[in-house]
């Protein structure tokens, strides 16, 4: 698998299981094309191993593992397999086309699993594990063995199991915290003990696979690294069974940022992290929490006035890594009621206003009053604050009517009527879904063509007649604005949100045009 940048073989391998364990998360199922898109992004990330699926689980899984195996060149491509002949044969067929194929064999080792799930004795489990590894070793060199529920297994017994599978040909020994039961100190101790007491322990890579049931997956994985693990099994955005798996982006950046502590790193291209996160999010339709470390919308955002002032003077005052390090554009000063005068002044300058020309004190007072009402302030709000207009936005466009035609057997069609400067204008459009058709019709009727960059719908009340809120983010050139709409019908709410956004876009255009025409100096 090559050497690390300092010429040594000592680095933390990243084993990505987004396509297998991650996909087991409810709502995260992917088709073959989506898996291929994620796999190619994982290769761009530079992960060492891709677990492409569980080939024996279904014909679809078999085909997707085959497709991934053929599509990537760099990483080892694995299929998961139980200690059953049929599983191993299917897994071998699935990875046959890979440049670097491998098999991941597992069986449970905790007494609770042996008694209630497997109905096997400890010796029977050892025999099954050794047989499966030996069988796979006849065909592939790269074999990983996992002792399922290792964190709740007897350590002496684990030493026996791992000793036998190493003898049978395993190259990687994985110690999973399958239920998220472990705590960092115990995980570290377990790895130290296994490496010290397992026969031929120095001949294999020791791996950790942690779940996040207690919110400790990343902490436990890092503790395992401190205990000698040299592979971390993880997923993009931490998706996976129940509360999820160890988050790839968090482990990679923890080792990167705190190299002074861990004195070891990965070979991942961190600048691809944000793109990988966004790619997966779009594929599975799962929104990333704003406070998600590394990749969340707020991960590099600052609202508190003291924080904003510090960041404006030196980003290291409140940032331990740069957004550019993970492929993001820059940090963000989020304006709200906690923001100070420095951040407000900077935001005005970015919009083309000169704080020395406008009545800055009055504008800042209006800003604080609006922030108390709205919570978060966007660029279009700042324009209103700066020019002293009490209206939320221009009302050049008014939605008058929306008519929908939908069918199981044809493209949906939406007709809209919009008043533009008091004159009604209608248009009809089809699209990939009702919302898409609605927005195409609005564009045709208003001649305002923009790119939809964000869309979010949420229920404000319960019941079948629930009131819903839709928020959108649209962009035209360098101008991006948000709009919101409330209605009991999601199409109507979506239409209202889009019209609200283009009204705000009109206001931004109007004011920025005036600013460009002005001779006032902008420092």
From TrEMBL:
<dbReference type="GO" id="GO:0005737">
    <property type="term" value="C:cytoplasm"/>
</dbReference>
<dbReference type="InterPro" id="IPR054691">
    <property type="entry name" value="LeuA/HCS_post-cat"/>
</dbReference>
<comment type="function">
    <text>Catalyzes the condensation of the acetyl group of acetyl-CoA with 3-methyl-2-oxobutanoate (2-ketoisovalerate) to form 3-carboxy-3-hydroxy-4-methylpentanoate (2-isopropylmalate).</text>
</comment>
<dbReference type="Pfam" id="PF08502">
    <property type="entry name" value="LeuA_dimer"/>
</dbReference>
<dbReference type="GO" id="GO:0003985">
    <property type="term" value="F:acetyl-CoA C-acetyltransferase activity"/>
</dbReference>
<dbReference type="InterPro" id="IPR050073">
    <property type="entry name" value="2-IPM_HCS-like"/>
</dbReference>
<feature type="binding site">
    <location>
        <position position="245"/>
    </location>
    <ligand>
        <name>Mn(2+)</name>
    </ligand>
</feature>
<dbReference type="GO" id="GO:0030145">
    <property type="term" value="F:manganese ion binding"/>
</dbReference>
<keyword id="KW-0963">Cytoplasm</keyword>
<keyword id="KW-0100">Branched-chain amino acid biosynthesis</keyword>
<dbReference type="InterPro" id="IPR002034">
    <property type="entry name" value="AIPM/Hcit_synth_CS"/>
</dbReference>
<keyword id="KW-0432">Leucine biosynthesis</keyword>
<dbReference type="InterPro" id="IPR005671">
    <property type="entry name" value="LeuA_bact_synth"/>
</dbReference>
<comment type="similarity">
    <text>Belongs to the alpha-IPM synthase/homocitrate synthase family. LeuA type 1 subfamily.</text>
</comment>
<feature type="binding site">
    <location>
        <position position="209"/>
    </location>
    <ligand>
        <name>Mn(2+)</name>
    </ligand>
</feature>
<dbReference type="Pfam" id="PF00682">
    <property type="entry name" value="HMGL-like"/>
</dbReference>
<keyword id="KW-0808">Transferase</keyword>
<keyword id="KW-0028">Amino-acid biosynthesis</keyword>
<keyword id="KW-0464">Manganese</keyword>
<dbReference type="Pfam" id="PF22617">
    <property type="entry name" value="HCS_D2"/>
</dbReference>
<dbReference type="GO" id="GO:0009098">
    <property type="term" value="P:L-leucine biosynthetic process"/>
</dbReference>
<comment type="pathway">
    <text>Amino-acid biosynthesis; L-leucine biosynthesis; L-leucine from 3-methyl-2-oxobutanoate: step 1/4.</text>
</comment>
<feature type="domain" description="Pyruvate carboxyltransferase">
    <location>
        <begin position="12"/>
        <end position="274"/>
    </location>
</feature>
<dbReference type="InterPro" id="IPR013709">
    <property type="entry name" value="2-isopropylmalate_synth_dimer"/>
</dbReference>
<feature type="binding site">
    <location>
        <position position="211"/>
    </location>
    <ligand>
        <name>Mn(2+)</name>
    </ligand>
</feature>
<dbReference type="InterPro" id="IPR036230">
    <property type="entry name" value="LeuA_allosteric_dom_sf"/>
</dbReference>
<comment type="subunit">
    <text>Homodimer.</text>
</comment>
<dbReference type="InterPro" id="IPR013785">
    <property type="entry name" value="Aldolase_TIM"/>
</dbReference>
<feature type="region of interest" description="Regulatory domain">
    <location>
        <begin position="398"/>
        <end position="523"/>
    </location>
</feature>
<dbReference type="InterPro" id="IPR000891">
    <property type="entry name" value="PYR_CT"/>
</dbReference>
<dbReference type="GO" id="GO:0003852">
    <property type="term" value="F:2-isopropylmalate synthase activity"/>
</dbReference>
<feature type="binding site">
    <location>
        <position position="21"/>
    </location>
    <ligand>
        <name>Mn(2+)</name>
    </ligand>
</feature>
<keyword id="KW-0479">Metal-binding</keyword>
<protein>
    <recommendedName>
        <fullName>2-isopropylmalate synthase</fullName>
        <ecNumber>2.3.3.13</ecNumber>
    </recommendedName>
</protein>
